[in-house]
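User: Structure please.
Assistant: Input sequence and predicted structure:
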Amino acid sequence: MREAENLSVEFSGIFWQKVGYFL
C-alpha cells in the first residue's frame, strides 16, 4: 500500500514537471 502511494506521488511529480516544461 505504501509503495503504491509513493509511486503515485512520484508519477504526479514527473507529470507536473512535464506540464511545467510544456507551458
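The first helix runs from residue 2 to 22.
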